[in-house]
Amino acid sequence: LPPEQFQSTSAQVAIEGDDAHHLQRVMRAEIGDQVICSNGVDREALVRITGLDKGRVIAEVIEELPMNAETAVEVWVAQSLPKGDKMETVIQKGTEIGAARFLPFLSERTVVQYDAKKEAKRTERWQKIAKEAAEQAHRNRVPQVEAVLSWKQLLVQAKEVDAAWICYEKEDGQQLKPAIQEAVSSGKVDRGKRVLIAVGPEGGFTEQEIEQAEAAGFRSVSLGARILRTETAALVGLTCLFYETGE
Ligand code: SAM
């Protein structure tokens, strides 16, 4: 639940909006049913439904649940807009694995049509996918899905994090695994730190984009000798990172 829909005292919770609708119309919830509620920030509780009004479900808290499904390192996934519904795959699976924020962006070889008018609706749909994936994964937080960024807007994001990596299949120097290990041992990547992983579109990044990204503070890394699909690359990057950081 978004925080404004989780108006709780220590004893009672009011569920409103889409979640109240889902509980009443889809789940056919009844008084006495037990559900798990989260405010998507810092609180999760097992509750028992005590009242069903139009558009509002009232419940009493049975038990506060420990919040421990979040990763130690906050990872942002920047994904150049891919074709079809691949962005949905990245958001859904990336949320399950533990990403904290998604930054879709445009790069030179982005092939998908970008329509600013349809943008708000699409971001809303992606945010809903992140919410559903977070719920199914028992995440405490719903990752934020940002509106599509320009290439320049993406580059400045490197300054907002402790480490920024850009995945480049032609990189023959730096592999992601040693880059993570080095960042972990130098303390750059540790509990509470932020990391950004950027992935290119189907046609990849241009050499010039990699140069610009490195000048902006990104480090170009390889994910191995095999060329991964754009929707696979971020998921591999996330998995490697959490493997090395331990959670
Ligand atoms: N043509 C395929 C497709 O349609 O998805 C593969 C595209 S690959 C060029 C897309 C992006 O995935 C690249 O820009 C890069 O960010 C990332 N990527 C794929 N394989 C990689 C590798 N082995 N090392 C680093 N990055 C990789």
TrEMBL record:
Residues 15-61 form the Ribosomal RNA small subunit methyltransferase E PUA-like domain. GO terms for cellular component: cytoplasm. GO terms for molecular function: rRNA (uridine-N3-)-methyltransferase activity. Pfam families: Methyltrans_RNA, PUA_4. InterPro entries: Alpha/beta_knot_MTases, PUA-like_sf, RsmE, RsmE_MTase_dom, RsmE_PUA-like, tRNA_m1G_MTases_N. Its EC number is 2.1.1.193. It is an enzyme of class 2 (transferase). It comes from the Bacteria. Residues 70-239 form the Ribosomal RNA small subunit methyltransferase E methyltransferase domain. Keywords: Cytoplasm, Methyltransferase, rRNA processing, S-adenosyl-L-methionine, Transferase. It catalyses: uridine(1498) in 16S rRNA + S-adenosyl-L-methionine = N(3)-methyluridine(1498) in 16S rRNA + S-adenosyl-L-homocysteine + H(+). It is found in: Cytoplasm. Its main location: cytoplasm. CDD domains: RsmE-like (cd18084). PANTHER family: 16S RRNA (URACIL(1498)-N(3))-METHYLTRANSFERASE, RIBOSOMAL RNA SMALL SUBUNIT METHYLTRANSFERASE E. Specifically methylates the N3 position of the uracil ring of uridine 1498 (m3U1498) in 16S rRNA. Acts on the fully assembled 30S ribosomal subunit. Belongs to the RNA methyltransferase RsmE family. This is Ribosomal RNA small subunit methyltransferase E.
